[in-house]
Amino acid sequence: MSGFKQCFYWSSSVFLTDLVLHSNVGTSLEGDANKLAYCVTDVPPWYLCIFLGIQHCLTAFGGIIAIPIILSQGLCLQHDALTQSHLISTIFFVSGICTLLQVVFGVRLPILQGGTFTLLAPSMAMLSMPEWTCPAWTHNASLVNTTSPEFTEVWQTRMRALQGSFIMGSLFQMFVGFSGLIGHFMRFIGPLTIAPTISLIGLSLFDSAGTSAGYHWGVAVMTTALITLFSQYLRHIPVPIPAYSIHKKLQFTRVLLGIVFSWLICYILTAYDVLPTDPENYGYLARTDLKKDVISKAPWITFPYPCQWGMPTVSLAGAVGILAGVISSMIESVGDYHACARLSGAPPPPKHAINRGIGMEGLGCLLAGAWGTGNGTTSYSENVGALGITKVGSRMVILFSGVLMVVMGMMGKVAAIFTTIPEPVMGGMFLVMFGVISAAGVSNLQYVNMNSSRNIFVFGFSMFSALVIPNWILKHPEAISTGLVELDQVLQVLLTTSMFVGGFIGFILDNTIPGSKHERGILAWNEAHEGDFSNTLESREVYNLPFGISTYFSSFPWLRHIPFCPPGVTASLEETEADTDSLENKQPLGHLESSQVIIGATL
């Protein structure tokens, strides 16, 4: 899993269940652990696809639902749980569609698509501008009438502005991907640019984490403690939950249930009125019955559709701000493609597959903007990490996950249940999640020579400037006055986005201050992403387009010059001759003697 995007893996691991392969064929457990039960092009049994598809959905669960909940604060929706549930349904629905498109027509690796915190930071910066600041009355629950046209217009105007910004940003991403420019762009990006960019995503969201946790610090600390207990201290100790096995109908395996336990404890405390019943008392928002009417009001079946919040509007400042997030997202995804190929038994992704993958993610952001999720889509690295645990790298499993997310997006009651998670519980999860995001960004410095005063200066100055400048601009918004309103708005959004400030400064300094590629960590970074791809499938079998499209394209020699089209059959055979001689010698899972597969599914 790519070092800079592994940020969500541990935070989402509270829902991650494991599939472990045990074999008694005379080989060591260590040797068996490195073998794949199913490679990327294999098709496991249907029941295995369903269970592992559920696992992948649960792995991405924490990140997907956290985005609309955090975004609701900037959209003035903190007291409208029903609309929050609609946003959750929409982001699940679009994430499922984008996953199907990516696996079938994009990079064609088993990699899930979903919302990203990389694009959340510029969105919140845009919504913090004076013209989009929520009216004071929207902060008072007693004054909010969620069905009034006035309130609807307040949040929908903000959502439409976000939609237009994401649509414009997605067009840039599609151009960079399908034109093949991403390869040239990556030559100038190194760990000293990525480290501050990713770290500042987590650091910039500290206010959201503190606000949610502050509603009841006891519950938030309990949630954090449970997540830490299950994901760290007990990670090698089995926790009994029901699970299905091929050879035994009921097995027990471990699962990390930090948020679920905390949610359950809050429910018990609410049932016995241990938590205060007066809205004015501290800790009232930890109750689980505050949004119970949302479940009854939510429809059983809902169908998100494009422009459901109205026609998107375009804001220059918003579009430029989203571009900063889009660029970071593209960098992350390229690393994820290489990590996913390594863990799924596939050869390194060729240029045409990477170009298609980035372009397809741009199309996913376009769909997210059209549907109105309030966010874009990107590759989920926590699911890449799940491939290493399950030893099942089949893309058919991810296709099942995509279908499941589409179905979940159409079930209004399911999304409504998610909105009943108490704010302090979410705050406790944010403390872990955003902390790990920040640390994952810093982990990219492992490739850099940190004994170099040059590198220490670049990273330190980038990080500190990215904390100072946005904080000062937010306190003195009138300081930006160029005489052009549009330019003032663009500078306001960019300079209040910590991720952009830190990444931009790091990019400029790293590419202008003299230093060798070894000192800058470029060589180590490239070696880490190349990895060991021996015993992998033929490249053509993995990355060519399906349904005979590649064969059809091969009849037109000029198409091989299009950056996202696979090369002709002859050229492809020449490029992958070495891979053909080293196909992985593996057995289908059903033919393994004395083997046992344990699948955990959280109910």
Structure report:
It is a single chain. The protein is mainly alpha-helical. The protein has one domain (32-512). It is built from 27 helices and 6 strands. The strands form 2 sheets. Strands 1-6-3-4 form a 4-stranded antiparallel β-sheet. The protein has a two-stranded antiparallel sheet with strand order 2-5. It is globular and about 70 Å long. Residues 1-33, 241-255, 532-536 and 569-603 have low confidence and may be disordered.
Low-confidence segments, given as residue ranges, are: 1-33, 241-255, 532-536, 569-603
Give the helix proportion (percent range): 55-70%
The biggest beta sheet is recorded as: 4 strands, antiparallel
Overall 3D geometry?
globular
Question: End-to-end span in angstroms?
Answer: 27 Å
Radius of gyration: 24 Å
Instruction: Output mean pLDDT.
Output: 80
Strand arrangement, major sheet:
1-6-3-4
Care to count the β-strands?
6
Number of helices: 27
What is the domain tally?
1
Structural class, from secondary structure content?
Answer: mainly alpha
Task: List the quaternary state of the chains.
Answer: single chain
Report the sheet-strand fraction. under 5%
